[in-house]
Batch of 2 targets.
Target 1
Amino acid sequence: MFNLNKNKLITLLKVQYSNMLEYRVEIALWAISGIIPFFMLNIWTNNNLNESINLSNLMLSRYFLSAFFVRQFSVVWVVFTFEEDALLGKISPYLIQPLNPFFRYFAQHIAEQITRFPFAIIIALIFFLINPESVWIPSLSILLLACLSTFFSFLIQFLIQSIIACFCFWTEKASSIERLLFIPTLFLSGLLAPVISFPEYVKSWIYITPFPYLIDFPANILSGNNTNIISGFFMQIFWISVLFPIFKRTWFLGTKKYTAMGS
Amino acid sequence: MKIRQYLKIYSLFLNTSIASELEYKANVIIDFITAILSLVGSVFLLTIFFQNTDNIGGWNFEQALIIQGIYTILNGITNTWFNPNLTEIVKHIREGTLDFVLLKPLDSQFFISLNKIAPSGFLEIILGVSLLFYCLDINQININFGFLFLCLTTLFCSIVILYSLWFLISTTTIWFVKTWNATEVLRSFLYIGRFPLNSFSFSLRIFFSIFVPIAFITTIPSEVFLGIAKLWEILLEIFVAGIFFIVSRRFWLYALKYYTSASS
């Protein structure tokens, strides 16, 4: 099913990276549109809301900065591209190629993240200029763990969206399902409020869902807040291993269903 | 005569776009569920904020709900009218089909801003209005004619400001071609409109009053609703709405001078 080798992967990445560089401004704008966590931080600290959750202003500001970073490098938009390609029939030539088209989208995402990196750093530097006391340098091992968990978070979201994208084979507007799923992701992942601050009736079940592992868990690692690293990684890997077979199955069924444009 | 013509054309726009949107009935339902969940999510976020405090920036929970209601209505209007049309501008300019719009014996801004409609946003507006009715009850507000008039005026001004903001940003497409994510930046800034302006620090408050006038978009209508708005605030809002509308109109006419169609 997946005819992938190192050369193909590198070529894909190179092509997509130069593609993305063409639209640097666009990606910079995407990066700016992700600054909601900073506004949230402002509400939290300005109203002393964090006193109740035993999180100092300092740790909270690091948390939200980390959440910003994790979000920057786990944004997924495959369903929107795929929907357009499927509607316009661009999928057909990709399907003939001896390579699953999702590798192309995957490479696009990775390339976009690389392009995004300098802009995210600039935004972080501005943040540090405004809040110089919140500067911290995580140790190398923490940094590696944070990168790994962010990548896993990206993978989980990529798989979920790819499954939704496969629905394009049956319905023309799969992206509205994605918009529906985005709402719980927004409110439960920890982007707007750390999961630790959630009321008990939510905390009792939320750790079984994939949501806290999308932003909250990697951000806690990176910012040095308390989190259970082992169970977090376990749940991330668990969700990836659940979602991957589902994706494979829907892809298989979907491509059988696919009728090229004009036929 | 002219107005009657435009009204007739608008009703034709309505017919065609509603017909084409209702092709995707399941979609409308999904969008409605999305709107409900999104409101539930923001109320959930508010309850987190109010867990251990009884006011944020001087607003208690019941009052903060009003802002959510106004935001939901405005978001519904954005999703019904602004979003489907103004993302279309980008397409028109990239593919050169703006030529066809300009050739029509019809005001181009009118055509571009109102051509399409996404009915799923209606449900969001209804949702917001029902939340406001609920707020009337829990905040024990008496309705009278003056109150209703002021509410509708400020809400109308908010819509005008919102429209002008969207239109201004979409117009820049004439120079930059690919700016539909600039509207995404605007969207994320507007998100702040869900919360009372006073809950932010002073510098952000200034930013959100001058550069992105969120203060005018949700906070002042909510204050009017509560009956605590001052007269100068209302007058200022009307003034700002007027300025924004005129600027967006002028900017569009100015930008058209720089439009070179796709093949020339």
Target 2
Amino acid sequence: MEKSEIKGFIAKRVAKELKDGDVVNLGIGLPTMVPAYLPEGVHVVLQSENGIIGTGAKPTADDAEPSYKTDAGGAPAQAAKFGCYIDSATSFGFIRGGHVNATILGGLEVDQEGSLSNWIIPGKKMPGMGGAMDLLVGAKTVIVAMEHTAKGKPKILKKCTLPYTAVHCITKIITEMCVMEVTENGLVMTEINPEFTVDDVKAATEADFTVAEDLKDMTA
Amino acid sequence: MAKIISVEEAVAMIPDGATIMFGGFLGCGSAHHIIEALANSGKKDFTIIGNDCGMATGPNGEEFYGMAKLVHNHQVKHVIATHVGMTPDVATQSMVDKTLTVDLIPQGSLAEMIRAAGAGLGGVLTPTGVGTIVEDSPFCLGKQTIDGKDYLLMKPVHADVAVVNAHMIDKFGNMWYKGTTRNFNTVMATAADLVIAEADNLVEIGDIAPENVVTSGAFVNYIVDGGKL
């Protein structure tokens, strides 16, 4: 697979996880590509943690009011006609309270215990966790959408080495190679990209995982 | 009833070393005129509390948008925030110059910790941050297990001064917010000894219907007619 195709490929597969009417919070980067791949008839309610339930279409340059209406990255945004604006305490009550069906976000590292590290590389930069820790703890389904490796090195580890964003929080990991579910018995690969073999995935993964008996084609 | 004052009078009420909460999310919904005047005042040693520290560059090309001005001017000695990545000065001053310290707190926890301070609660029990370095935060008082689930006990967050902003404020101090500008303004208006609210539009009592008031003027001590952004 061409490098340029990877993100779109992952976003397309992630889109199949969403059901009509789901309330969804999207992380920055790859996750924002997911709505473009939603099957016909599937509409989701997007939430922006800075204060929108029911985020609408991105405003045109003429309609944008970035002093008043933004998304969680500070870019111009607006509520849909059915949406509403809320304050931060209400927004995170909504998130922690289990009213978000799915959050989709990227990861620096994930591990076989279902834990995720994606907010800081100590000593390098000082970003901050923002709303990520709350989203991972509160959303009913946590989907990590990321490239399987970084510069050839596995990102799916036995144990994360970077500070955790949250522990035991991941539902599913979707990469360009496969789909893995986090279960009580550890990671289970349930789908594979037919461009790769099980051994390819094993070579690119540090974590222990089992292969589902009915391993499916993730492109089907 | 809140008293209407000038931006200069507002700045005069904020001493060196004050702990100040600023509403806003990456500058959206921040009291830009008061912050600008504070940045020009030369006052220093502030502890600032906010979702973030604004942005190095604002959405319309503004240089040092929102709280970023105060950090850039070295007027801040301590930051309590959820995310400071859009203001590289924070990393430079804390990691290289060592002139600034930072406490990072999850966004939902910080909102609720401020709400708790304003609502007379002794803390917040939240599942957010369990198993992470948040457990080592000076704001975390320990872990509790309730019905088999782990929670962190987080302290309330109160300030000397809250500097908040709304699109429309009437002369009683009642506030109505536009778009996503509510963010931390609503909780901060309840959680400081002194609450100064900047109006983009100062309107007459009655212009905001009681049903549409989001923050009661009863929380607000002083109003600054900031004017249009």
